[in-house]
Amino acid sequence: MKNLLKFSAFLFGAALVLSSCGGGERSATTGWKYNDTKWGGYEKLDYDGQVAGPNLVLIEGGTFTMGLTEQDVTYDWNNIPRRVTVSSFYMDETEVSNTDYREYLYWIDRVFGESYPEVYRNALPDTLVWREELAFNEPFVETYLRHPSYDNYPVVGVSWVQATEYCKWRTDRVNEMILVEKGILNLNTEQKDEDNFVTESYLVGQYQGDVRKNLKDLRTGGERPVRFEDGIVMPDYRLPTEAEWEYAALALQGNQTSEKDERISDRRFYPWDGNTVRYQKRDKYQGEILANFKRGKGDYMGMAGNLNDDAHITAPVRSFMPNDFGLYNMAGNVNEWVLDLYRPLTSATLSDTENHDLNAYRGGEFQQMELDEDGRPVEKDSLGRLRYRYVTDEEAATRDNYKTGKVYNYLDGDKQSQAYYATGEHTLVSDETRVYKGGSWADRAFWLSPGARRYLDQNKSSRTIGFRCAMTRTGSPSGNDDVGGHQFNTKRKRGSRRY
């Protein structure tokens, strides 16, 4: 709620002030005036910083030990502890709920239903994931996704591919809402097929929309649409990387001994302190279960009259105690998809090199926008999105920082690593296996540890897997009240000229 109020204040009260830097402010390197049409109209914003979108929480980045924090009882040896740093980012306070996902389905059907019904069909969760040979779960097949009783429960039966598509859609809907609330576009619910608001298409001029009032163009004195450089539209919603998810789940800032040093008082096995799944402080909550999980064989919620987690399957997305970042259900309820491709040796790779210990991630397949002969983006596709193509190995060969366009197997599955995955013969690992984390209502306590990891084909789904979204943080890692870096007062040398 606090973040939503801040976001509303941003939309209704914060104006884009291009002229506030004017009044004679000049470039520190050329002396030319900013924001002045007579001086060419170069715009320098008085920018207040990125704000958190709906349901997002700022996760201040930092260093931590990524990997298992307790015994590897599965003997997979696929998550060796190693030190990494994660940049600041935003993350959903909760898992995506059924009503959130149904809003997505409703929009798809309204915009693409007549011409491209397959888009709607491809987005539908697999409700048959509830079926089981020796269990009567048929009522969940019919009710879990659509009945209002489960509105605020996490959506399940969604594949990694479907979750990724949801993130793209959410990016466009949030940015469209921002432009409407700022009076730049009029609300338009008649969008159809390719004539719908897609952030990238709008920014390159391939979608205009129902314009209410554009921004002043200081170069020409006329008007212009919003540009990315204006800082109005937000970065993309996406799945969090495995490193981001694990860092956010542990929330080790809660165990920082003092704001004056970098010491952590204790490691964590779970998103809370201690090695037990029960609340330990001596108050009215003492002994309460801290997550929705399977306590033992055949025990999903305890005994009638004193249910231990009060949830036979999933629980509402704002159930249980949030962690020290304010995130709900980072252990239990449903497992969550993360962005990464699964490889068992990734942790060993990170332990042996210092080149990949910032924002560690496996799954890169580099792309670039398709351009015409004049260097402009080619016409958008039938769904209104810009067209991209993958970078070839030949194009990457002359680079110093990467040498191939698809780096799925880098140091784990390539010649250099001497690892070989014969998919379908003796492993299920392939270029379509993605990591999921967090444990679920049907898992034992071991899987609640943020360091635990499992994988599933990106096109498959489960009744125990859902997801939440993340967003990159731009600018200062600590938030908008801090510009970043240490600032010291210094005296200007005599004779220096100040405009």
UniProtKB/TrEMBL annotation:
Gene3D superfamilies registered for this protein in UniProt: paralog of FGE (formylglycine-generating enzyme)
Supply one GO molecular-function term: formylglycine-generating oxidase activity
Do you know which Pfam families this protein is assigned to? FGE-sulfatase
Q: Where is the Sulfatase-modifying factor enzyme-like domain?
A: 54-369
Q: Where is this region: Disordered?
A: 470-499
Q: Which SUPFAM superfamilies match?
A: C-type lectin-like
Q: Which UniProt keywords apply?
A: Signal
Q: Where is the signal peptide?
A: 1-22
Q: Where is the composition biased (Basic residues)?
A: 489-499
Q: Which PROSITE patterns match?
A: PROKAR_LIPOPROTEIN
Q: What is this protein called?
A: Gliding motility protein
| Naturally occurring in which organism (per UniProt) | Phaeodactylibacter xiamenensis
